[in-house]
Amino acid sequence: MKNVTITKSASYKLKSFFCWVYQNELVSPTDLADGEIIDILSHNGEFLGRGYINQKSKISVRILTFEQREIDQAFFIARLQQALKKRTNTTSTSDAYRVVHSEADFLPGLIVDWYNGYAAIQINTLGMECFRKEILQSLIEVLNPKGIFDKSDIKVRAKEGIETQNGVIYGEVPQEITIAENGISFVVNLYEGQKTGFYLDQRRNRQAVAHHIHKDDKVLDIFCNAGGFGLYALKKGAHVRFVDLADHALAQVAQNITLNGFETCEIIKQDAFDFLTLEKMTKNTYDCIVLDPPPFAKTKKEAEGAIKGFKFLLSAALKLLNENGIVAVFSCSHHIALNDLLELSLEASTKARIPLEVIELLRADEDHPYILNIPNSAYLSGIVLRKTAL
């Protein structure tokens, strides 16, 4: 087995089970083939882990195991079985869930979601691409899917030097799959949907927000995508307005409303910032506003601009909230964490002279595990705030 030596500071991180080694942390050798399986050694020659290397990527080494074990199909089968065992609670409430969450399941570069008999996968790194055959065979053996759809991230793979051709790679996958979540049905389109098809990570948060919604409440679901939060509100008997800019998302909202037998709602195609700017000029008010934007800060450099965007959204929402109304705001970026949301909420509260009560602190559901040793696995944060009277 070939090996690479890393710096002293990187060695300490790996000893605490961090899974990445950056380009500038490699010491020797550097003439290894990209995608190759290697052993990672400390600055004093101690074995730290085994993973794959790609020096085209800023993250040059990703750890697959901290033991000296063979990386073969048996390895992937064992990892999949281990991942499934952790998701027993989720499988009891939904037939759609994440099976593999990349580094958080010690399979960096691989994401696998399950949709009522079908698997959607992302193979986003060169190292994992080299094991495509073993991964697919393992998925077929462990999950026995009717079909597998490749939804790999084209932009991420380009940085890894890999070409991408998404689509059905095993069996058959219908244009639409119906899933059930806490008694609500959703249609998932793997051919057009975002991410691997549906925001499974918000499952618990949809239920948590709905807990504070009552019959006849007026609810505004902004960046609604397939309408997850709004559908939960409709089940509680609320009146909901859905806002999104994507045609396919709004079509899914309409379909999901019909699928669940709810009454027709107002579905608005508009940019969220434009909508809120205009909405502030009306007399419309709401009992609940959900702000669940796409990632504003995919990199650390984008964090400052993202915070400005969140401040605008939250300030606008506070003006539209009824007294004792709630606003739920989410960040799906590791670079805008829970503390950032709390700080910008405090600033918005002070500026608007409106006290805010924190009634929920939220994170991704448990099928998207947060490993304490891998900080980037805590990528989704959310808070639910109540507008209180002075």
Describe this structure in words.
- The chain is an alpha/beta fold.
- It folds into 3 domains: 3-65, Archaeosine Trna-guanine Transglycosylase, Chain: A, domain 4; 73-171, RNA methyltransferase domain (HRMD) like (Transcription Regulator spoIIAA, 2-Layer Sandwich); 199-387, Rossmann fold (3-Layer(aba) Sandwich), CATH 3.40.50.
- It has 12 helices and 20 strands.
- Strands 16-15-14-17-18-20-19 form a 7-stranded mixed sheet, with helices on both faces. It has a 6-stranded mixed sheet with strand order 2-6-5-4-1-3.
- α2 crosses α5 (132-143).
- The longest helix has 18 residues, at 303-320.
- The N and C termini lie far apart (67 Å).
Summarize the structure.
The protein is of the alpha/beta class.
Average pLDDT number: 93
**Beta content:** 25-35%
In CATH, the topology of the largest domain is named: Rossmann fold
Q: How many individual β-strands?
A: 20
| Discrete helix count | 12
By CATH, the architecture of the largest domain is named 3-Layer(aba) Sandwich
Q: For this structure, what is the CATH homologous superfamily of the largest domain?
A: Vaccinia Virus protein VP39
Radius of gyration: 22 Å
**Which CATH top level class of the largest domain fits?**
Alpha Beta
Number of domains: 3
Tell me, briefly, the overall form: globular
Give the termini distance in whole angstroms: 67 Å
Q: Flag low-confidence runs.
A: none
Find the structural class using helix and strand composition. alpha/beta
